């Protein structure tokens, strides 16, 4: 999939122009977008495949029924996991005033998806304002961004640099089973401080944060076709059933059901 940010750079960097620009694309292998930002707000989602999105304070996982909203000038990076078919909507900065002011994941609706796909067919991309039915469709998309429920698919990072180092190590190797005391010693921080600040800075205690990191990584692994048993063992679970049980409690379905839907 051609990076839409590069493809539409001329439009995206203009403070004026159409209130909304939408693009759709496919990619047969991994797609990597290096850290960047632009003056337009961006909503992007997946029709098939899985995305992970990096922002300053965390990582966002985007399954096929969710989308990520990024306000204007938000630094971010992205990566797909396996074949990917998705879309992006870029919203002019003035129209973002009453949209979410922080990055978030949204549960997409059928109305949003159909409106976005209709907007993706507006070719060629023009710098002129939208009128008529196109203006109405753009208004529907903006209203959906404004009103759709926020979903907790992010993994917030702690602000303390010592805790960030620990968090990034856990993301790099979710199967690392060192306990809190060992991680505190490795990060040159007391176990009491590590425990307390993880809660105050991320909203999760250390154990829950690590489990969440493992669950989100499992979504990436499922998207690549990796067997459930191999995923469970690679993530440090003693048995596949232990992993399957936690996955069901976290996402409301088994890994096999999730993969079939993905």
Automatic annotation (TrEMBL):
Q: Which GO terms describe its biological process?
A: positive regulation of metabolic process
Top-level taxon of the source organism: Bacteria
Question: Can you provide one Gene Ontology molecular function annotated for this UniProt record?
Answer: DNA-binding transcription factor activity
Which keywords does this chain's UniProt record carry?
A: Activator, DNA-binding, Repressor, Transcription, Transcription regulation
Query: Which Gene3D superfamilies would you find in this protein's record?
Result: Homeodomain-like
Pfam families, per this entry? AraC_binding (PF02311), HTH_18 (PF12833)
Q: Where is the HTH araC/xylS-type domain?
A: 164-261
Which InterPro entries would you find in this protein's record?
AraC-bd, Homeodomain-like_sf, HTH_AraC, HTH_AraC-typ_CS, RmlC_Cupin_sf, Tscrpt_reg_AraC-type_HTH
Designated name of the protein? Helix-turn-helix transcriptional regulator
**What is the organism field in this record?**
Pseudomonas mangiferae
